[in-house]
Structures are given as structure tokens and as C-alpha cells.
Amino acid sequence: MQVIERIHILGASGSGTTTLGQAFAAQLGYQHFDTDHYFWLPTKPPFQVKRELQDRQQFLAKDLDSAARWILSGSLCGWGDIFIPEFELVVFMDSERFAYGKAC
Fold first, then answer.
1. Residue 68: CB partners within 8 Å, gap ≥ 6?
2. How confident is the model at residue 98 (pLDDT cuts 50, 70, 90)?
3. Do the beta carbons of residue 2 and residue 8 sit within 8 Å?
4. Structural contact between residues 80 and 90, judged by C-beta atoms closer than 8 angstroms
5. In terms of pTM, does the model score above 0.90?
6. Which of 38, 46, 72, 83 could form a disulfide with 56 if both were Cys (CB 3.0 to 4.6 A apart)?
7. Would you tell me how many other CB atoms lie within 10 Å of the CB of residue 69?
8. Mind listing the pLDDT tens digit for each residue in 23-52?
């Protein structure tokens, strides 16, 4: 059985991708990365200034290359298509299905 080493968890904002990614990473002993960390420059309040496209791609590439096993949470839409070939498993969070306490 082959171990999956590179996982991407994505979904709508607020759907729980970061929470699930952190939990899986802690349970499995994987490194966790979140796309917000790469997309946004650190500001107070947060999420005010976008990082330049090339900078965020280089920053994320460096971190992904530095870890043997990782989970990346969050959206890469519009800026991270170059990373798609790196994913061995993609998990899509659909919060609509859990909105009323029902799973799928």
C-alpha cells in the first residue's frame, strides 16, 4: 500500500479547510501549509494586502519542497495552478452539505 504524501484540501472560504488540514497534519505527523499564509502579506488587521504573484508562488514552492509529507489547505484558484501536478490527493470541502447537521 502506497502512502499518500501530498494532500490538498480546498473549499469555499469558511468551509473548514484550514481546521481539517491542521487536524490531519497533527494526526498524521505531516507538515501543514495554508494558502492564506502565501497569498496575503502579514498585516494588522490581516488579509488586507496581497503578496505579489511570483513571490507567493516562490514562497509556497520553497515550503512544499522542504517537506517530505505535507497537507496544503485553502484555495489556489487563479494563482496556484502550477502546483496541481504535486497533489496526490485532493479533498473538496462542501460546507453546504453540513449546513443542517447532515453529512452527504
1. 5
2. low
3. no
4. no
5. no
6. 38
7. 15
8. 999 999 999 999 999 999 999 999 999 999
Cell 508562488 locates to 57
* Torsion 31-59-74-16 (CA) sign: positive
- DSSP labels, 8-49: EEEESTTSSHHHHHHHHHHHHT-EEEEHHHHHB---SSSS-S
Q: How far apart are CA 65 and CA 70, in angstroms?
A: 10
How would you classify the pairing of strands 89-93 and 70-73?
unpaired
Cα–Cα distance, 53 to 38 (Å, whole number): 9
Distances (CA, A) of 34 to 11, 17, 27, 69: 12, 9, 17, 14
Amino acid identity of residue 72, one-letter, is L
Structural domains in the chain plus CATH codes: 6-98 (3.40.50.300)
